[in-house]
Sequence to fold (113 residues):
Amino acid sequence: MGSYSTRGGAKAGMLFSLGFTVQRAALSEVAYFALASVFMSNMVDGITYMVVGGVMAASGLYIRNRLRYPHFHAVERYLESLAHIHGGEKSRREMQHTENPVGGRRASGGECR
Fold:
């Protein structure tokens, strides 16, 4: 995750895990209090899973077919300055869209499409 060294990879992994855990905990509480009455119905719950599954499938197909994923460079720059987990030649190529971080393959024609 962003580094080839053991310590850098561990730092990146721990930062990712911490952020994911905090986000998950906070949003699950917000969702419970805001939507508890709505999601008491099994039908609404099933529809939600169908919509979320459809969006996830569409996203996966988009990434697989285009060899590009939607992202914001501002987040990557912030993480690099905060935890020094992005940087180096590989990160520079990703920012210029000449390398695909999803599959690790060079993009055809020098650009991700």
User: Anything to note?
Assistant: Residues 12 and 26 are 21 Å apart (CA to CA). Confidence is low (pLDDT under 50) at residues 107-113. The chain has four helices and no strands. The longest helix spans residues 6-35.
